[in-house]
Amino acid sequence: EELERNNFHAELIKKNPDERERIAYSHIIQRFTTALTIPDQKVELNSAAKLFREAKNDTVAQLIDEETRLIIKQDELEKKLYNVQLKGLSLVDTLEAILINYEKDADTLRKDFNLNDKRYWWIKIQAYAKKNAWAQLLEFGKKPASPIGYEPFIDVCIRSQRLDEARRFLDRSIYSSKLDEERLPFMFAKVQMADEAINSAIKLKSMEALHFIEAKCQLSEANSTRIRQAREKIQEYDDNPLKNVFKIFNRGNRA
């Protein structure tokens, strides 16, 4: 195979056309083990994609095409940015590596690979949190309507053990029109704002939220009592046969 690889592959396919996929995978292995230059890697990947298409496996062929485009873009970025190492990284890891200092290049790469808004916002907030770029994370959160909401901003801060940063995203003076009311008690509970969490859960009459607050927060005796009383009231409401009438009436009042 080392001496006459292409001829060897052609003979295998001639004897058994089903060998195409096996040979295609060997090209991918070669790309990772022996193809050191970008042109060599492109040759291996293009050969693999061609064989997968011949084997009617267009899905894998398309993935290989994407990988080929990615290594070309990585090579271009390394030459342009000098001090970043991108070869061998996935698309997500590549974006994370350049997001903080080279955000315009990251935005361009995102467009090149047609990443949708939701996925890109997730990648961005995780990159900011990993690199402790809290000021940039906060500014990013102030942009018009987040396609992923604002709870993920809180979650990435908590994973980095930064409750102080997480609480910033519950500042009603900034985010009051953006926060999802249904998720507010859960968000307050995650950042240990027990009073606010209980108040919002009671307002929503959410038994689920009250259970979550009990599990998540360190509660004072007074707050434990409030939760118990709220649960009793919600239970009484749920047991009331006229509750659907109440709901209709309340909707009419809100309207």
TrEMBL record:
Domain Vps16 C-terminal: 17-224
Pfam families: Vps16_C (PF04840)
Tree of life domain: Eukaryota
Sample GO molecular function, one term: actin binding
BP GO annotations: endosomal transport; intracellular protein transport; vacuole fusion, non-autophagic
A single cellular component GO annotation: lysosomal membrane
PANTHER family: VACUOLAR PROTEIN SORTING VPS16, VACUOLAR PROTEIN SORTING-ASSOCIATED PROTEIN 16 HOMOLOG
Protein name in the entry: Vps16 C-terminal domain-containing protein
